[in-house]
Design goal:
Length: 346
């Protein structure tokens, strides 16, 4: 009779501990479900968003995945060494990490017009020379050959070619050259999530000298940004390595190993199925972890279940993705244990 009472007491203890863990897990999980429903989170339509002209003046673009080395190589091909060195120094001063590099190309189309009349005439010139019959004398012989003028801007870049033929009724002919504009944008990200942008704007005249680029001074550039919000990712499986410590709370059998030792210390590999955080890769909490490993203290195989894991690496310096998890375990020596696990995910 006494033996039966003792077993019932142990079973009640295990049931109580398990119930408390399940209640805490339900409260935590319920909170994040409510949080996910109450917040307005924009759903990603796809990982790759194709370039598209939305209107005549607005276009859409996106990013492709690349390594840090790819970004630096792209930068070196787009910037001069002086600009590249200055950019690196400014990113360091802002404690900002290189996140994206982009180049946007736009153009102004070429226009050609032939045999046009003057738009207007200026005041009468009283100093022109005339014949006895009143006809004008071509002192500078402009009617002999068409007059051609190359128009350039302040940087000596070709803009247009204008031709005036004084012998014609409609004397004007002109060509406005193509212009191609190149905007290089470098995106950095600070620890707070705030983005920093660096721009370089140039243009070229592809029909005349496509290999020469002329700088455009940028006098204003500003952006507004919505901070990332935490959200629930219901199916986001991640493998992790976990080191655990705990103690036996119930013994249901005498299996191989060291069943008499109540302490539990070991390691296991597990998988958690869901997460809560700003992105799938940057989680504050993970949920529903199942693990399998070895209990070194009890010298037995160890199976574990953790309702949730908290990323203690986020608030701590020099650490990221280090998770602490309350867990219940069952081992091959015949014991049920309760303890804490800690470890990184892969």
């Amino acid at each position: 009779m006494s033996d039966v009472i003792i077993k019932s007491s142990k079973f009640q203890s295990v049931a109580t501990v398990g119930s408390v863990i399940l209640i805490v897990a339900a409260i935590v999980l319920g909170y994040f479900i409510w949080k996910d429903i109450s917040e307005e989170n924009q759903k990603l339509r796809s990982e790759v968003v194709q370039f598209k002209e939305l209107t005549e003046t607005l276009v859409r673009s996106s990013t492709n995945w690349a390594t840090k080395e790819d970004l630096e190589n792209r930068l070196k091909s787009l910037l001069t060494k002086e600009d590249f060195d200055a950019l690196e120094g400014d990113l360091d001063s802002l404690d900002s990490k290189l996140k994206a590099v982009g180049k946007t190309v736009g153009s102004i189309r070429r226009k050609v017009s032939d045999l046009e009349k003057s738009d207007e005439e200026g005041p009468v010139n009283s100093n022109v020379e005339t014949c006895d019959d009143g006809r004008l004398i071509d002192v500078y012989e402009y009617t002999k050959n068409p007059q051609i003028k190359e128009i350039k801007d302040i940087q000596e870049a070709p803009v247009a070619k204008v031709e005036f033929d004084a012998s014609q009724e409609k004397p004007w002919k002109y060509e406005v050259y193509d212009r191609e504009y190149n905007l290089v944008t470098v995106v950095g990200k600070r620890d707070s999530g705030q983005l920093t942008f660096h721009h370089k704007l140039e243009y070229s005249v592809p029909g005349i000298d496509p290999d020469t680029f002329y700088n455009i001074n940028i006098f204003s550039s500003d952006f507004i940004q919505v901070p990332l919000k935490n959200k629930m990712f219901w199916f986001n499986p991640i493998l992790d390595l976990n080191f655990f410590v705990g103690g036996r709370v119930y013994k249901f059998a005498n299996g191989p190993g060291n069943p008499k030792d109540i302490f539990s210390v070991g390691a296991d590999v597990g998988i958690s199925l869901s997460s809560y955080g700003e992105t799938e890769a940057d989680s504050l909490f993970r949920f529903l972890r199942i693990g399998v490993g070895y209990d070194a203290e009890r010298r037995a195989a160890h199976f574990s279940l953790a309702p949730f894991l908290y990323n203690i690496g986020k608030p701590l310096p020099l650490l990221t993705n280090l998770y602490l998890a309350p867990q219940v375990g069952i081992d091959s020596s015949g014991g049920i244990t309760v303890g804490l696990g800690i470890g990184p995910h892969f």
